[in-house]
Amino acid sequence: MKKHFCIVICTLFLASCVSDNVDENNNRRIFKYNELGSVSSLDPAAARSVENIWVVNQLYNGLVQMNDSLQVVPCIAHSWEIWNNGLSYTFHLRNDVYFHDDKNFEGGKGRKVTAHDFVYSFNRLLDPSVSSAISLLSQVDTTNFNAFIATNDSTFTINLVQSFTPFLGILTMKYFSVIPKEVVEGYSKDDFGRIAVGTGPFKFKMWNDVKMVLVKNEHYFEKEGKNKLPYLDAVAVSFVKDKESAFLSFMQGDLDMVSGVDAINTDKVFTVNGNLNDEFKNKFVLQKQPCLKTDYLGFLIDTSLSIVKKSPLKIAALRQAINYGFDRNKMVKYLRKNIGIPAQGGIIPIGLPSFDTTKITGYSYNPERVGKLLKMAGFPEGKGLPEITLSTTEQYLELAEYIQAQLREFGIMLKIDVQKASVLSEAVANQKINFFRKSWVADYPDEENFLSLFYSKNNSPKGFNYTHFSNDKFDWLYERTLKETNDSIRYDAYQQMDQLIVDNAPIVPLYYDEIVRLVNPRINGLHTNAMNILSLKNVKKK
Q: Residue 180, preceding bond cis, omega within 30 degrees?
């Protein structure tokens, strides 16, 4: 009784707090969602987490943007040229883009955006104390202040030291939004992260521990046909951390969307096949599509490390046996309600052009192969094989226990070590764990972003090669693709690299994730995309 009482109170609180400062009774169209996670900053330079990116995307714009088909399209730049053999990018800016009003502008009115604003915004990202985006700018030419140049108010050029085919896609990330120098310097660093003065479809209104409110930018530059954007009057974000309370509030119509497996009561809403139960088919709109995210188990395989020398996981045949030793289809069906696609390829997920299971021979459940590989590894039927520790977090414990039970049938004994996410992340980055659960979400929609996890020069802790996989052919192919502009040649190289990862088994691909949202049927124009970017500028509410 006490628990249900608390949920009702939380739900009433949620419904009231998202309506503060926005009046739906006055026919105002407000899009409301709850954030189970935490928004840490509104500064685009800190747009690393999904929570931050979703809000920043409503407030700021960059040179270019990604459409729902993951194509790079104009934004503040109406056109561009790539020249000098891919070493220079020149962008031509619109002349009708203005910053939101702020006291630090002359007369408190937002001024027009110029190319000089992009020079300031991008140079700011080169400071590692400001942003982790510096790693994405490793290709720019920083000699003699040559990286970012404003030829005039409407022409902005970026110079690279070597060509890098995915670079234009990188510029769609929210890190590369334009910000005004006088506003950044008019506030302290912490204060700038608590307010927002961008060019986006919505303006910052208020933010406290329980809610955030953004309001319509009446001077926004983009249109849909002849219609000015955005259609909504406001966006209200609540920060109720209790999943049950937030979901109940959505069920009662006080929220317009819930997103992600973690936010949805999947047992109540979905059938075992991942469809809506009959009672919810006419109540909600289900949005579901592949996401550029691969969940996997990783092996540390650097034999120069003592932790690896002492582990049987240094033997490739054993790692391959683990890959064959459990049924991914049943795992996704019964543990995830068919949300996600069993990973029977490599690290490259569904949704990227080179994904092709007819060209990549991955792993599927195969008891016969497990037996042969264990024998090859020197552990017939698991005899003599010491217990192996798999480190994971509480969120993925059930999944780890499923794999543990299946591998036990072959004599592969797993011990599950549950750690806090932050502790596990730090330990994996510093080579303290042999076998770990991990995932990778695309920073930008190019296979290179996933394959960079296995490039030998990206070894952790400086880079993201957590397995310390090293293969000369892989490195040669990887470096070749950075400069290759022919898509068919690049995709062929990507597939060769993906197959090398499968064959050498530094990871156990588990599933390619899916975006899943439940949406209020009063909402129109809310689209999904494989990058899971929330865009509200085209949304209408009845």
A: no
